[in-house]
Amino acid sequence: MPCPSHVAQVRPARNSFGAGRGRDVLSEEMQWVLRNARLHAADPALRSAAGFAQGAGRAEPVHRAQVGRWESGGVEVTRALVRRYESVLDLPEGLLLSAIDFFSRSRHPVRSAATLPPRTPPDVDATLALLERALGHEPMTGLDWDRLSDNLGRMPHAMVRAADWEQVFGRLLQELSLGLHLDYAQRAEALARLAGHPRSGAVVAALAADVVGRPDAQFYNDTLSLLQFTRDPQALAVLFGQLREPTNPSSLRACLIVLTTLVRGARLDPETRLEAVRLAVRHLRDPDQPYLVHRGAANLVRTLGPAGSNRVATVLTAEDRRAAASIIRDGRAITAQAIREASQRIRSVLETGEGRAAAGEPILGELLQTALGETNEEDRSNALCILMLSPQASIIGTVHAAAFAEAMARHDHVAAHESATVLTWMGQVEDLDLFERVALSPATPPTVAMEAGYVVGNTLEGRGRRRDEREVAFARRIAEVVAGGAHDPELQAELQAELLRGLVYVLGMRGRRDLLTALRDALPAPGPDPRAMPEIARGVLGWWLAVPEHLRPER
Q: What is the pLDDT of residues 210-254, one digit of tens each?
């Protein structure tokens, strides 16, 4: 899933999911995960406590009162209990456990094991076998990565060579870039655990330093986001280097996201803090930077403290950077009214459907508030991942597709970006025609078209004539962009590269190696300028074509 997010790093006890988030709040969130899953069971007979208590033939029956104790804090939530819910509700293994891990990760970023680990110690032989598979050419499932990362996380003195850490991270980053839904969530959590291992920090910093120096990299966020999960002292140095001299808008945006998370709770010396603010304001005031960079820079200014923030916001308002000013002042890019209306639309649909019993849950409300209104992208990504795994995902996706269409109709590209961020996680197949039109239109601003491409690439679509037509249309548009056929001949090459990545993402995620190969073969002979569009395209297309067979996911 495209996007996201810390050296002296202690995240404050308060964040956008709510205040005072201690163990008691995590327990309430875990109880909500269980209750929410039951109330939306695919089998209506399992939605009542009495029906669920019978076990559906997949677990031993219990008294109905026991279900109430499980979901109200009467007993401790354990891994075995969560697995019971997954089994009785016939959910994929790890679905509810992943949601719980993301709740925990939102305030404990450096954590090397599962939130609810097995009660037995890790099996050394089984861990070694999984590690050998990860270092080899056999496929690894999300559950394989979950077990390997948890086992290693509970073995702090595990003897893993630096070269092996690097190979495991390289493979897992590639798989994460290709993952969707639960496959993505399990790999993202595994990656965070491995980055938090006491023996992997130097490797993580080196990987991040390498990727930000490459202008043809397809993804920056996934690798840079590793820095928020480690306490290695090089993390901050890598990010400041990119903040001073960004490789391109994509790398700068990723740097801003991660640095914003890193500095929360970190004790920066006054000189470092002042430089960070100065550089962020410089990027904020650069009219050539896209909105997503302005949003990231505004988040960093807001996070670094209130001193001078209002003055910066006032200047930006005068310069017509109103969205950035709103982020600095209020922590959101769109109006509170728009956020309330979107939340109410989602609740209205829930209340009229089978999920009305869960529609008023406070934890769901906090998740929606963070997912819809929070501009800090790490907090937002955690909330979006939890919602993506929840039964409410399709409703949220449908409501935001309508909001996206309305924003585009009134040329409100800030609101369109905010809805598209939600839809890269929860796009629905019935809305693909809309996002295809937006992504392929030469009149669409490049970064909006890029995000529309990400929505299409992340939305599963059954095979058929319409899908083939859609993918061929994306291939045609890619060829136009590479040839300089964008609607504005003066369009910055960097923005064209952003657009190109979003369009190619569709074909890559859908496994269209035939179209990717044809596009690569049609490129002119290599030239001397690595920032020229054909050379950027060669790198982007080459990344997708170089994905080994054993890493390609089954859709």
A: 888 887 677 788 888 888 888 777 888 888 999 999 988 888 988
pTM: 0.85
Alpha-carbon distance of 152 to 367, in angstroms, equals 31
Helix (H, G, I), strand (E, B), or coil: what is residue 143? helix
Q: Distance between CA atoms of 156 and 355, rounded to whole angstroms?
A: 43
List alpha helices for 464-492, DSSP H.
465-482
Coil, helix or strand at residue 536: helix
CA angle 199, 205, 207 (to 5 degrees): 105
Under 8 Å CB-to-CB from 456, ≥6 apart: which residues? 427, 432, 435, 436, 439, 470, 474, 506
Q: Rounded distance, CA 38 to CA 42, Å?
A: 9
Chain-centroid distance of CA 111 in Å reads 18
Q: How far apart are CA 255 and CA 349, in angstroms?
A: 37
Question: CB burial class (10 A; 0-12, 13-18, 19+) of residue 403?
Answer: buried
Residue 18 phi, psi (nearest 5): 145, 170
Assess contact for 226 and 204: CB atoms under 8 A: yes
Type of residue at 272: T
Q: Is 371 exposed, middle or buried (0-12, 13-18, 19+ CB in 10 A)?
A: buried
**Backbone angles phi and psi of 363, in degrees to 5:** -65, -40
The count of residues in the chain is: 555
